[in-house]
């Protein structure tokens, strides 16, 4: 095998790129973070010491004492992320259906369960270390001026490293998707699938007919909150936004964050959908296994299996019924193109024989946010700070009851949807989401701080020092609201770099290339500034920090020009890349899959993951992706229920 491929896991970077920025990039002083890095990122420990904490990880042995998988399954699913985990679980509810679920990453472990640690895992082996192609004028404050696009590489996929925020999007988002010709995807129809998985434990909303308490996926309020979230909600009310379930289809508003946790412990898609099904004889899960190609019969244009690499050996496995790509919005289009399905001209230029000319990767939307609007407070004990959290007492408390500050999903406490004056949308669709943090990106600093949050975003130390040093060095109390651009006009795309399946593809964000995107974020900034001026925040003496970015010197603070420069300096993705395998009717020139998620022109091949979402939705994408997989499972079952039964035995 080694002769076949040049394995480049982190192909854009030198092998030890974590340390590239010198000492500034080494992780740190805190014993718990030290433990995490040793556990989750063997790259951090001295060479040859191996993955010494492997025994702490979950395991997915093949059932029935099998040593290797079968040669053939009914379904082969590529990627055990938010979508793949749900799909594998639902398809194997029928004992006669066999599924092989292949995942490149490792199973999760107890440290990934700690919600406050969410940002810490972006620099570990639980994340693909993807970088967006260089784009002048964005991410100017990031290392090498590159935007970092980590994605989950684990059994559970991105749901193992995400912030656990539960959002569904507005009804109009989905109704527009349906109105574009995607039958079955109206809000009324998708609501049933949101509800199907949901086990909502949200005090006060028990009787809400849009929520369900009987599904598998727990959704709860965070048990511990700072006073800052109360101020955020109060200020929201002053501005006319009721405090509500922000997922309510009936109105826009602000609310406490709803997290996919159980008693303050992360519940990844794997934990929820695969753990209990591990013993199913008909579900085989292969972690640490890398799919390199989908096998497609060139004559019949039918997918019949996949090629994968495990323990450095190449194998093939056959799919009797379907191959399902759930490798996420970057790897799914990459695998399609490597397998001959993609834009003809591009595949020709790569020397890949074209089986089907399709606009794979021609579209890519993302949600970016601005994390640099930070308010200094005149308090010392109000905001969340690493130095107060990663201590023995809160850790023991979390282990016992799950209700210490460790249960906060990366510090996120509340969400507010607003429609700025820039919006010309006739419907009640917000253009900005405000994410209220019980601190800021500086909550990991101060003497002895890990600096893991800012490093997870790849912000240069020099930028933090110059812009925020005065509050960072003394670990001052802060409040911030991330300003998330919900419906960017600008969109990017994805292409192969070469034919090597171990190479990362070329990812183009094309951020902020439309001026409306910039002015909308600035309108969000002005909104938050006005909120911070209200009494609920002035109680804490909230004062906007005058960040002097090295990239924005000589621009007067607080001018629109200054904020544009600041946004272009700290351009942070919220990791919601979508539309790379866009769903659409057959008259949609950018559609890759049909409304039943079947790849156009190739039989027995579907894409089921966040990459099929055809246009931006007012939501983070984990719950929508699980919903998509729930719906896909029913569509797949319906397809095969109408066919002849399968008499082939498992042996
Ligand atoms: C850091 C971060 C924070 C986020 N925070 C939130 C949040 O708070 N709330 C929210 O709703 N959304 C959040 N998101 C987004 C959300 O988690 C994702 O949109 C969602 O998980 C995508 O699901 P998916 O199934 O499409 O892909 P993934 O969950 O990424 O799964 C794809 C899987 O395929 C595997 N894979 C890829 N290539 C191969 C291959 N060649 N062979 C085998 N396996 C392969 C990957 O390792 C991965 O496990 C966040 C994402 C990230 C990265």
UniProtKB/TrEMBL annotation:
InterPro entries: FAD/NAD-bd_sf, GMC_OxRdtase, GMC_OxRdtase_N, GMC_OxRtase_C
Alphabetical list of Pfam families matching this protein: GMC_oxred_C, GMC_oxred_N
Keywords of the record: FAD, Flavoprotein, Signal
UniProt entry tagged with the keyword Flavoprotein: yes
Cofactor: FAD
GO MF annotation, one: flavin adenine dinucleotide binding
Binding positions (FAD): 291
Superkingdom: Eukaryota
Active site: 576 (proton donor), 620 (proton acceptor)
Domain Glucose-methanol-choline oxidoreductase N-terminal: 152-175, 328-342
Keyword match Protein transport: no
Family in the record: Belongs to the GMC oxidoreductase family.
Protein name: Glucose dehydrogenase [FAD, quinone]-like isoform X1
Originating species: Bombyx mandarina (Wild silk moth)
Taxonomic lineage of the native organism: Eukaryota, Metazoa, Ecdysozoa, Arthropoda, Hexapoda
Gene behind the chain: LOC114252878
